[in-house]
Structure formats: structure tokens, C-alpha cells
């Protein structure tokens, strides 16, 4: 299998590189930690390693060294499409180089082979109350697939440590292959009277999701490819990535680890922000009507939100200090295909207004839009208006990134995580001695 062969090829030199670094330079300090960071969510504490993506505060994300525009340009695309195959992205994340069309297609066909979703998953989803949040349904589905885990079985059968990554990769491919069908099933069950659409074996992974969602406009296939590409990975420190890594570090399999990561993604300060964001735009439209397109009225609305003690969803970031390039890629998509769409236009106009408001307020370190500020308005255009579903799509995509990281963490034998805690008294003592 292509991904396994490629990783196998790369692994000896990676293992040697890491072994040498830790053995010869293990005592070199990477940074220092302040009391503000200990009490401040470990912001900017350099304590994790990943080679899959890096977020530069000004430039934004690079996947394996490639910027978003480069990834969009270089990865192979389906015939007639403008946005690349997700299979090619997964190859890039795992292998570290841009795949050929054939290599991207090989990943796509691995997913196709592994796409069958066991009946018990659908039954479990159906068994939950109908008002259950779609993220809960999705997380439960990922968790219960754990009974399929090859890593778990092989570990208990005495698998050697050097080979841990192999069933981790198998599990990851098996899980990812099933996600579009599971997510679309949840959508159609909850919002379309259970009128389920079967997968089309001729479509690529992301295109198939678009098909199973029931959106007829062929452009939605490209939007799905774009969405899954942009949300896949954002270093290791964000809540969903870090949670997945932490859980997997105890040698839990990817089903346990990714479902924990999804639970983190479901929080309003993380992945749920995309639904909050669209909610905010609709509130602006409903309260303001025509004045929504008036910059000073929009600015007043933003101030009202802040004065009510709420955050403006979709703006700000823990690491970024510039407009998120993932926002820009989506803005360009909307401008190209539906610049006059009512909600898209509003999301674009908010971008002209909110950064100034946040700057004037002076609290947020980053007044610029993040990935979530616009993603919902693009979905809305295609009739996906049930915005509590949006985080599920984020979750499908994020599993691409966290599973690629989990495979490499196993391959490089990253150990169980165990940072040290101190008490407040201890911090006070350290502070007293420092003056
Ligand atoms: N609106 C209003 N206030 C904001 C703000 C926003 N969009 N972003 C930050 N602030 C405030 C914070 O609440 C904080 O206030 P406090 O001192 O009273 O607690 C202050 O500015 C400083 O925060 P920060 O250091 O700039 O941000 P952070 O690293 O603590 O948090 C984030 C980052 C994203 C949680 C925050 O900017 C936020 O809440 N944004 C809105 C929600 C959002 O868009 N989340 C999605 C993030 C991307 C993702 O994971 N999908």
C-alpha cells in the first residue's frame, strides 16, 4: 500500500534524526515558561513537536512547508475541478511531498476499499434522541467504531513497538474512509426526514460527501474539497489536535483518540465557532435588515456584542496575528462564484468592519478573521443552513490532520504525555524568590 511503503522508506532516517537530536542535544533549552503562561492556557509554551504543519503568526499555516495557495495549486485535482483531491492532501500530510495524480488516486482508492460502514453505527445514531447535537452523534459514531481497531487487537496480541504505527495507519485509513458517509447520514437523518443517499463509487472521497449531502450544484463538490483541505491541520497545540495526541500517547487507538479530539472541537471557542459565526451574521441581518450592509450600523452591532460581554465569533486567534489564509482562500472562492450572495456579502463586509472595532477595543491580540469567519456563509449558499452541522464537517477534516500526526507519533515512538503541575503556593514561592 502506497502510504505504508512511503512511510517505511522515510522512517529509518527520521528515527535516526530524532535519536541523534535527543541523545546529543537533549539538554539544550527550547524556551522558558512564565507564571502567566502556566496560568494562561500554556499559550506559546514550546512543548510539542510536529513536522506536518506549522502556523507562522503572520503568514499562517504551511502544510509540510507549503502555503495554502501553493497546496491549492500543486496538488492533483479531479478532472474539471479547481480544488484538489483530499487523497492527495493526505499523502502530503503523511509522506511530506506533493503526490502525482496516480499517488493521490491510490489514496482515494484505499479509502474507497475501506468505506463500508457497519450497520451498528447507523443503529447507534438512530438510537439517540432526535434533538441530540450532530457533533455528539458524530463523536459517538467514531468512538463505537473502536471495536474495529486493528491497533488494539494487534497490541494485545504482542505487536512489537517498532511496528505500532502500521495498524495505526490502517485504523486511520479505515476510519477516514467511513467519515463522509457517517456525517452525511447524520445530516440526512436529522434534517432531511431520514432520506439517506447512498455513496457513488465513481466519486472521490470529498465529492462523495457532497453527493450524499444531497446538494445538486456540482460546485459544492469543490467547496467540500476546499473545506476538508483547509480545516485538516493547524499544528499540534490547538484543542482538537492536542487532545487527540494526548489520548493517543497512552497508546489508545485512533478511534478513542479522535473521538476525544472531536469532543474538544465541539467547544464554542474552537470548532463550534463556525456555527456561532453564522448565527451572528443572521442575527445582524435579522436585527438590522437593510442596514446590515451599512458599515457604521455593522460597527455598532459589533460594539453591542462586545458590550454584552460576548466575543465576535470567527475573529481572533491564539497564534495568528494576521488574516488567516484559510479565511482568504474561502473569501476568494465566494468572490469568484457567488459574490452577490446575501450572507456571503455580509461576511465579506464584516471583514471590513470588525478588525477596526476589535483594535479599538484593544483586548484581542489578533483582531483578524480566522478560518471560521466565513466558512458557514459558503455552506449557507449551497442550502446547508442547519448550522449546528458545520462542526461535523470541521471534524471530518480535522481527523485527516490528527490521524496523520498520530501515525508519525507512533512511528517515532513519542512517549505518554505527562507535564508537571505546581500549586499556586509553589508559583507564589517561585515569584517571591525571583524578585
Ligand atoms: N471578540 C471579542 N473579544 C475577543 C475576541 C473576539 N473575537 N478574541 C479575543 N478576545 C478577547 C478575549 O476574550 C480575551 O478577553 P479577556 O482578557 O477578557 O479574557 C482577550 O481578548 C485576549 O484574548 P487573546 O489572547 O487575544 O485570545 P486567546 O488566545 O485567549 O483566544 C480565541 C483565542 C480564538 C479563543 C479568541 O480570539 C476568541 O474567543 N475568538 C472568538 C471565537 C472564535 O472565533 N474561535 C475560533 C478559533 C479558531 C478555531 O479553533 N476554529
Describe the structure.
With about 425 residues, the chain is an all-alpha fold. It has a domain at about 110-265 and about 390-410: Orthogonal Bundle (Citrate Synthase, domain 1). The protein has 20 helices and three strands. The chain has helices at about 1-25, 35-40, 70-75, 85-95, 100-115, 120-125, 135-145, 150-155, 165-190, 205-215, 220-230, 240-250, 255-265, 275-290, 295-305, 325-335, 340-360, 370-380, 390-410, 425-435; strands at about 55, 60-65, 65. The longest helix has 27 residues, at about 165-190. The radius of gyration is 22 Å and the shape is globular. Amidocarboxymethyldethia coenzyme *A binds near residues 238 and 317. Amidocarboxymethyldethia coenzyme *A binds next to loops.
What is the secondary structure topology, with strand pairs?
Elements: H1 2-25, H2 35-38, E1 53-56, E2 60-63, E3 66-67, H3 68-74, H4 86-95, H5 101-113, H6 119-127, H7 134-144, H8 150-156, H9 165-191, H10 205-213, H11 219-230, H12 239-248, H13 254-265, H14 273-288, H15 295-307, H16 325-337, H17 342-361, H18 372-381, H19 390-411, H20 424-434
Bound molecules: amidocarboxymethyldethia coenzyme *A.
Amino acid at each position: 500500500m502506497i502510504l505504508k511503503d512511503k512511510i517505511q522508506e522515510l522512517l529509518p532516517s527520521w528515527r535516526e534524526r530524532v535519536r541523534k537530536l535527543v541523545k546529543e542535544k537533549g539538554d539544550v533549552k527550547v524556551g522558558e515558561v512564565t507564571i502567566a503562561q502556566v496560568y494562561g492556557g500554556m499559550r506559546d509554551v514550546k512543548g510539542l513537536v510536529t513536522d506536518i504543519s506549522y502556523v507562522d503568526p503572520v503568514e499562517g499555516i504551511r502544510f509540510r512547508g507549503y502555503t495554502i495557495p501553493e497546496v491549492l495549486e500543486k496538488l492533483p485535482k479531479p478532472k474539471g475541478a479547481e480544488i484538489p483531491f483530499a487523497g492527495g492532501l493526505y499523502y502530503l500530510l503523511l509522506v511530506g511531498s506533493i503526490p502525482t495524480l496516480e499517488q493521490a488516486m491510490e489514496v482515494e482508492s484505499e479509502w474507497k476499499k475501506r468505506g463500508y460502514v457497519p450497520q451498528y453505527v447507523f443503529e447507534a445514531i438512530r438510537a439517540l434522541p432526535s434533538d441530540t447535537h450532530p457533533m455528539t452523534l458524530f463523536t459517538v459514531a467514531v468512538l463505537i467504531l473502536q471495536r474495529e481497531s486493528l491497533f488494539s487487537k494487534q497490541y494485545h496480541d504482542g505487536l512489537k513497538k517498532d511496528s505500532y504505527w502500521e495498524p495505526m495507519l490502517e485504523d486511520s485509513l479505515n476510519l477516514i474512509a467511513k467519515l463522509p458517509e457517517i456525517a452525511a447520514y447524520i445530516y440526512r437523518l436529522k434534517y432531511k426526514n431520514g432520506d439517506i443517499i447512498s455513496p457513488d463509487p465513481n466519486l472521490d472521497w470529498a465529492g462523495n460527501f457532497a453527493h450524499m449531502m444531497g446538494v445538486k450544484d456540482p460546485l459544492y463538490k469543490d467547496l467540500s474539497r476546499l473545506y476538508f483541505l483547509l480545516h485538516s491541520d493547524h499544528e499540534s497545540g490547538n484543542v482538537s489536535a492536542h487532545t487527540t495526541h494526548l489520548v493517543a500517547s497512552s497508546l489508545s487507538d485512533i478511534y478513542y483518540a479522535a473521538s476525544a479530539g472531536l469532543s474538544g472541537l465541539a467547544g464554542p471557542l474552537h470548532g463550534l465557532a463556525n456555527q456561532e459565526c453564522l448565527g451572528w451574521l443572521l442575527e445582524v441581518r435579522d436585527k438590522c435588515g437593510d442596514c446590515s450592509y451599512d458599515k457604521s450600523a455593522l460597527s455598532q452591532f459589533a460594539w453591542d456584542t462586545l458590550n454584552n460581554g460576548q466575543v465576535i465569533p470567527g475573529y481572533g486567534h491564539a497564534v495568528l496575528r494576521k488574516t488567516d489564509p484559510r479565511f482568504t482562500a474561502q473569501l476568494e472562492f465566494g468572490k469568484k462564484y457567488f459574490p452577490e450572495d446575501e450572507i456571503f456579502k455580509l461576511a465579506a463586509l464584516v471583514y471590513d468592519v470588525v478588525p477596526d472595532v476589535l483594535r479599538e477595543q484593544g483586548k484581542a491580540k489578533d483582531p483578524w478573521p480566522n478560518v471560521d469567519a466565513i466558512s458557514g456563509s459558503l455552506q449557507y449558499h449551497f442550502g446547508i443552513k442547519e448550522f449546528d452541522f458545520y462542526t461535523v464537517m470541521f471534524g471530518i477534516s480535522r481527523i485527516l490532520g490528527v490521524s496523520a500526526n498520530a501515525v508519525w507519533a507512533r512511528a517515532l515512538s513519542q512517549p505518554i504525555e505527562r507535564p508537571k503541575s505546581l500549586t499556586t503556593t509553589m508559583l507564589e514561592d517561585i515569584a517571591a524568590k525571583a524578585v
